[in-house]
Design a protein that fits this description.
Distance between the termini: 54 Å
Strand order of the largest sheet: 3-4-8-9-7
Radius of gyration: 20 Å
Largest sheet: 5 strands, mixed
Structural class: mainly beta
Shape: globular
């Protein structure tokens, strides 16, 4: 029906003799609208969607909107409760991130799916060592963030970080294959007019903090964050800060000329 948000994923086989010769290989659906998709070096296709439970004016829509649906057109099914993870920081549970994985190297591979339920849609990033979710809860007190990582071939292993102080800055995720990942967090303005800066955190695969370095810029002054391989560029109207992760456990901050 018109209320159901679904993403259709169609996979084609390409002929080695004629790349223009395509044949349908797999076709599946997952709840929500597509946020990201990528194929890893090992040949697994990951698709990430966001699904809001509530419709117009906060009214709950159909049952299909409350529990994520995945599968083929002929056999759509609700996700099992054991494949749905709930964010214990959330005051309201009104949106999902749905992650599906399909091994393209096996013709008979099954579709693996998990979902993360919380009060706002986390940011998702696909990396070679797993699917990373990052989310921030804001309220009357200090903003709190958290990173979540799904891994293993069937997405069955889930790791969550401890609470991280501050806001997650958009587009700041850096994949560090030998270490884990890096993110940029920003402190909100302090009472009395003082302004806190930003912190780059390097997280290991258990999502513990392996390294941290300060960046002397207010989050409100950031206009754009770019990630170029092992480098993070933090742009403001006046200058650009560069964070080099050549040595992941000792990131270096400089002003780019």
């Amino acid at each position: 029906n018109s209320f159901t948000e679904m993403t259709q994923v169609t996979v084609y086989s390409v002929s080695e003799e004629n790349p223009a010769d395509l044949s349908l290989s797999r076709d599946y659906y997952q709840a929500g609208w597509c946020r990201d998709a990528a194929v890893t070096e090992s040949g697994t296709l990951y698709t990430v969607t966001n699904k809001s439970i509530y419709g117009v004016n906060g009214i709950t829509e159909y049952l299909a909107e409350v529990i994520p649906v995945v599968g083929t057109k002929a056999e759509l099914s609700y996700l099992d409760v054991n494949r749905i993870y709930v964010d214990d920081l959330s005051s309201e549970l009104d949106s999902y991130v749905v992650v599906c994985g399909l091994d393209l190297t096996k013709a008979d591979s099954t579709l693996d799916a998990v979902a993360y339920l919380g009060d706002q849609m986390p940011v998702a990033r696909i990396a070679e060592d797993g699917i990373y979710l990052g989310r921030t809860v804001t309220g009357e007190g200090e903003a709190t963030s958290r990173m979540i990582r799904f891994e293993d071939s069937n997405l069955s292993s889930v790791t969550e970080s401890e609470n991280i102080s501050g806001l997650l800055i958009p587009r700041s995720f850096v994949s560090l294959p030998d270490t884990g990942c890096a993110i940029l967090t920003g402190q909100q303005e302090c009472t009395g007019g003082g302004i806190s800066g930003c912190t780059v955190l390097v997280l290991d695969r258990s999502l513990g903090t392996a390294a941290a370095v300060q960046v002397p810029v207010s989050p409100k002054k950031i206009t754009l964050v770019e990630v170029l391989s092992q480098t993070m560029l933090i742009h403001t109207a006046e200058k650009t800060y560069q964070v080099d992760f050549t040595a992941p456990l000792s990131p270096e901050v400089s002003v780019r000329v």
